[in-house]
Amino acid sequence: MPLWAARTNRGQPWGGFVTPPTWRSLEVATGDTLIVPAKVSGVAIDAVLDSGSGASIISKSLAAKLGMTNLEPRRINGLGGKAPVGLVRNVAVMLGAYAPVLPFAVIADLGAVSAAFGRPIDMLLGADVLAGGCVALDFATRRFAFEKPASFVPGPEWTTLSLGHGAKQELFVLASIAGLDPVPLMLDFGSSSALILSSAYIETHALLAGKPVSTAALGGVEGVQIVKSFIADTVSLGPLSIASVPALALDHWTSVSTVGNVGMPLLGQFDIVLDVFKGLLWLRASPPRGRLPMLKDRSGLGLAVSATELTVVHVASGSPADQAGWVLGEHVVAVNGRVIDVFYTRGSLWQWRYGPAGSRVTLKLADGTTRMLTLADYY
């Protein structure tokens, strides 16, 4: 049974909860990754909220530290393919005051996810954990609350959306792309892409017609894959619409129940309450200053991040980097005179790729040479 501890450090009331929620600090890393304090098997960690994963995922490195060695081999679906993983049984997790023992958790290589993020990712808290409570996300003040299920009654300022459950237990909502009929899109808090659509859906509705299209590198549990990038005219969740949404097209979309997913950059335009138990998602328009940035790369460099350098893992077609002759495997050690170190993704330096078109960036390579890159819209 869930264990609900006594409330401490009450925040200000957020209208709609039966009792004032207990707010805790929420880190929004690299603009779109939600990191919260949690415990697994009694060990304190920073975990990523990932509603797009049906089961919680523990990295191989953390599993080794915890002595999780008796693993059952399995294969799971990532966004674009299958990945070999292991299962471990009866895993004790704590998120806030909620302390379930999960029947199982997945042990997987999160190296590609960590490299794209620039910091080790120890655990993804999936829908199995989130289903145990009602999650509130307040981006304006960088805080979250994890309350009892069915503890939220929305006021008229909230838009109510129904949650569906796919064949693989993935959560989805209905959304309209470019004014078309609503389709099921996976609800994916763990995705740093605002919108991902299957290539089959895109081709059926000619969504790329007349649009500039480029490429991007997408990392997941199945590794890194190269996908198309473009701008979707609008995405509508019920009556709420967002224009000019950066999007990706996947050739091998594995979900049979959805045609894509909606990620945190788009969801972060709203205040959020999620109650998986009740099967409902509530969204409320937030002021611009309270929204997460909907980032658009203007460099064309896909980068893996380490403590000392940025490694080029992809050069987007037609991008400034492509036109300047960048190639895979090159190593950047400084940006605008600032050396790459372990604080690269914890400060603001990582934002250089998303600056205004026309901005000039100075990049120093490991061989000592320096290059100038002018940012531009290329898709």
Automatic annotation (TrEMBL):
What's a single GO BP term from this record? proteolysis
Sequence ranges assigned to domain Peptidase A2 in this UniProt record: 45-121
Q: Show the InterPro entries listed in the entry.
A: PDZ, PDZ_sf, Peptidase_A2_cat, Peptidase_aspartic_dom_sf
Q: What domain of life?
A: Bacteria
Tell me which residues make up the PDZ domain: 291-340
Pfam families in the cross-refs: Asp_protease_2 (PF13650)
Q: Which GO terms describe its molecular function?
A: aspartic-type endopeptidase activity
UniProt keyword annotations, A-Z: Hydrolase
The protein's name is PDZ domain-containing protein
Tell me the lineage of the source organism: Bacteria, Pseudomonadati, Pseudomonadota, Alphaproteobacteria, Sphingomonadales
